[in-house]
Amino acid sequence: MNAWLEGSVPCSDFRNSEHRFSASRRPRKDKRMGLFKKGDGSSQTSSQATPKSKSRMSVEFGGRRSGEFLSGVRKSKKPMKAVWNGVVLAQSEKCEIYDGTFYFPSDALNMEFYRSSDFVDNHPKLGRRIFYTLEVDGKQHNNAAFYYPSPTPKDAVRIANHVAFWKGVPVSPVGEEEESSGSDEE
C-alpha cells in the first residue's frame, strides 16, 4: 500500500522513521470553505496558513507586483484614442481606467461606426455587460466594444455607460502611432 495512504510520506533521502512527515500534521485545504484544516481538527484561513511574502523575486507589471491590482477607478493622465481599420472610434481626455482597461465617455464616441449587438453577458466582477459591433468601410468587428450600464462594485460606478474596447482594437495615447490598426474581420 502507498505510504501516503498509510498516514506518512517517506523522505527520499532518509530511511529511518524519525525523518518521516506525518500526513495528519499537514494542513489540508477544505475546498468548500477556503479553509485549511490542521491535523488537530482546528481550522485556519488560507491567509493564516500561507502568509503572503513580499519577495524580491516577484515580477513587476505596470509598477505593481504581479497578482496585485489597483482597485477603484482612476483618470487617465493622457488623452487616449481607440483606432480600428484606420478610423478613430473614440478619443477623449476624460478616460477612466479600471483594472487596466480604458473606458471612454459616451460623448467621446464616433457613433456612426457603432451598431447595437444582440450579445449581452454577465461579467463575474462588474455585472451585466452590453456589446457593440463596429462597422468601418463595410467591415464588421463583432462585439468589439462594450459597456456596463450599472457596474456592481461600488468602486466602479464612474465607469457606468463608458465604453471599452477589446478583441484587437488598440487604445493608445493621442499623438502616438498605434502598434496595429487591427483590421480584423469577424
TrEMBL record:
Q: Which domain of life is it from?
A: Eukaryota
Against InterPro entries, the record matches this protein to: DUF427, DUF427_sf
**Which parts of the sequence belong to the DUF427 domain?**
80-167
**Which portions of the chain have biased composition (kind: Basic residues)?**
22-35
Q: Where is the composition biased (Polar residues)?
A: 41-52
In residue numbers, the region (Disordered) covers 1-61
Designated name of the protein: DUF427 domain-containing protein
According to its UniProt entry, this protein's organism is Porphyridium purpureum (Red alga)
